[in-house]
Amino acid sequence: MKQLCLGTAVLVTALIGAPVLGYAQDVDVGRLEYVDSCAVCHGDRGKGDGPLAASLKKSPIDLTKIQKNKIGLFPFDRLYEVIDGRKVVGAHGSREMPVWGDQYIGQAVGSTGGFGITPKDRESFVRGRIIALIGYIYTLQVK
User: Domain ranges in the chain?
Assistant: First the structure.
């Protein structure tokens, strides 16, 4: 009898959760991240023409040409370092772009109230957000 109840509970949970899971797959987390964190400077299409671009000391780069400027290679590691901001990149010079790694850590802690979240959980949360964002930036590349 316990197995039947457990099986029924699993089936009901699966049926209730199915539409939610289908919807979640339709969400482009990288695009949402880009719109929320990058578009204000880099523009909706990544051309460097966002609403704040004119007020910056240094113009934001055209994100659509990253791969083209690297002879067809998409510099995933380099983008990760720039977005994360926690790794010093000597040739980069002064830091014009905000450090999103610190912001994402704050969001990871804030989403749980700081309770029960380990340093490894925070790191996974930050890594997932950055990887999704880089994945979206890859879709902006000109061919």
Answer: 2-139
